């Protein structure tokens, strides 16, 4: 008998009785498996701030040019339709003629003070731009005044990084923000996506009387209030960027099929997708955990004050409660263990602790990929509903899973199963 091919791809299944229901991604780029920041890329491409190439790919690690960055900023502020109609009445820089592909975008950013060229009068539109430079542009879009905030002069990059990081423009970035490094396309998406979620600012004059009687007036940035519009991003009476410029874009707090806190994004009433809110995750384990570990990670005050919910494969489980998370508890919880992914989320606003354990199961492909129906049949070994260990047969559709055509009869795949019934 030939040896079975073992594939380490994990397919996420949602089991509602015998049905598999998985929400397909909003944007199916041909290189989607290479995209790290899928939520940012999906949302930014859905609102047409940045798009893929004619060949159908996105090229997440391709370097962003200075001209393309100007286009992103204009698409953010003006919307893609208005931005695409921008023209340059005169050459904004000596190396950007009026017929340059990005001339209209560059001219708009120059006029509004969001972007600046080099001392020699050039802009160098084909050059890459640093993280510092792109963050400076995004801060300008949010309303920050470059001269007032010290984004010019010797220490401009330090001031930009400090402000950008403090308002979360680098949230979700893998590793530390490196402002000197050239920005790639998916990093640009992440920073622009965080800008959508960030609060805009406006300036007020603050008068200070100094001890000797001198009167000094300073411009001080304050959060812009949102009194007139519906709050589509965050219910905080403040104007998030998307609440001003993308009123058809909505973010709704929800949970994914495994119970993890998530955000559901829709644009013009069309689903973009649901994405786990990893900004709330405080710990992740692939080994058995005990009450003492959780006590030390979370702290007694949070454990006492917050509600605790524990999910195993999408189902609420009563094994872990607040009373289990005590300093002296060294008992391993039966539902966690080697190879079981356990994630801990803390939502300070809602005062909730969510602990989620996700098992991985082996499944055998029972027939070659059906190219006519575009389906693949599998048997899941030791599925969670089957305590006797018998198999559950599922038929997967290419509408819900990418790359099913690679699999043949006898292959073994890894699956995670969320029970929602």
What structural class do you assign from the helix and strand content? alpha+beta
Radius of gyration: 25 Å
The residue-averaged pLDDT reads 85
Q: Which spans of ≥5 residues are poorly predicted at pLDDT below 50?
A: 1-8, 15-26
Q: Please, how many helices? A: 11
- Spatial gap, N to C terminus: 38 Å
For the sheet with most strands, the description reads: 6 strands, mixed
Describe this structure in words.
There is one protein chain. The protein is α+β, with helices and mostly antiparallel strands. The protein is 22% helix and 25% strand. The protein contains 11 helices and 16 strands. It has helices spanning 38-46, 66-78, 80-84, 103-111, 131-141, 146-149, 156-166, 185-197, 241-245, 291-298, 300-305; strands spanning 6-16, 19-20, 201-209, 215-223, 249-255, 261-267, 270-276, 281-285, 307-312, 315-316, 341-347, 352-358, 360-365, 375-380, 392-397, 412-419. The strands form 4 sheets. The protein has a 6-stranded mixed beta sheet, with no helix packed on it. Strands 8-11-12-9-10 form a 5-stranded mixed beta sheet. A hairpin with a 5-residue loop joins strand 3 and strand 4. Helix 1 (38-46) packs across helix 8 (185-197) and helix 5 packs parallel to helix 8.
């Amino acid at each position: 008998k030939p040896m079975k091919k073992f594939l380490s791809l994990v397919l996420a299944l949602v089991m509602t009785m015998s049905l598999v229901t998985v929400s397909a991604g909003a944007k199916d780029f041909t290189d989607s498996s290479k995209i790290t920041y899928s939520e940012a890329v999906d949302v930014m491409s859905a609102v047409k701030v940045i798009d893929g190439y004619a060949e159908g790919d996105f090229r997440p690690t391709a370097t962003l040019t200075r001209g393309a960055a100007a286009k992103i900023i204009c698409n953010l502020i003006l919307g893609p339709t208005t931005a695409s109609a921008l023209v340059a009445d005169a050459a904004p820089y000596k190396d950007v003629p009026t017929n340059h592909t990005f001339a209209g975008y560059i001219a708009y950013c120059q006029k509004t003070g969001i972007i600046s060229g080099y001392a020699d009068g050039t802009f160098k539109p084909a050059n890459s731009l640093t993280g510092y430079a792109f963050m400076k542009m995004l801060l300008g879009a949010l309303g920050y005044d470059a001269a007032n905030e010290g984004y010019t002069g010797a220490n401009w990059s330090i001031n930009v990084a400090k402000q950008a990081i403090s308002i979360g423009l680098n949230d979700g970035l893998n590793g530390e923000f490196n402002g000197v490094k050239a920005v790639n396309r998916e990093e640009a998406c992440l920073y622009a996506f965080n800008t959508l979620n960030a609060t805009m600012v406006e300036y007020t004059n603050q008068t200070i009387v100094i001890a000797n009687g001198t009167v000094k007036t300073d411009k001080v940035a304050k959060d812009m209030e949102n009194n007139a519009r519906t709050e589509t991003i965050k219910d905080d009476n403040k104007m998030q960027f998307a609440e001003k410029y993308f009123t058809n874009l909505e973010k709704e707090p929800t949970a994914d099929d495994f119970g993890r806190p998530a955000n559901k994004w829709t644009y013009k009433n069309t689903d973009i997708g649901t994405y786990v809110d990893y900004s709330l995750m405080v710990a992740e384990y692939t080994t058995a955990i005990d009450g003492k570990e959780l006590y030390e990670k979370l702290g007694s005050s949070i454990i006492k004050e917050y509600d605790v919910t524990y999910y195993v494969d999408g189902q609420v489980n009563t094994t872990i409660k607040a009373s289990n998370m005590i300093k002296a508890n060294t008992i391993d919880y039966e539902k966690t263990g080697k190879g079981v992914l356990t994630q801990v989320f803390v939502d300070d606003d809602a005062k909730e602790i969510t602990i989620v354990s996700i098992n991985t199961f082996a499944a055998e492909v029972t027939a070659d990929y059906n190219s006519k129906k575009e389906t693949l049949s599998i048997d899941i070994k030791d599925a969670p509903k089957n305590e006797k260990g018998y198999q559950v047969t599922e038929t997967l559709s290419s509408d819900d899973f990418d790359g099913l055509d690679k699999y043949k009869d006898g292959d073994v795949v890894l699956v995670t199963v969320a029970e929602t019934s």
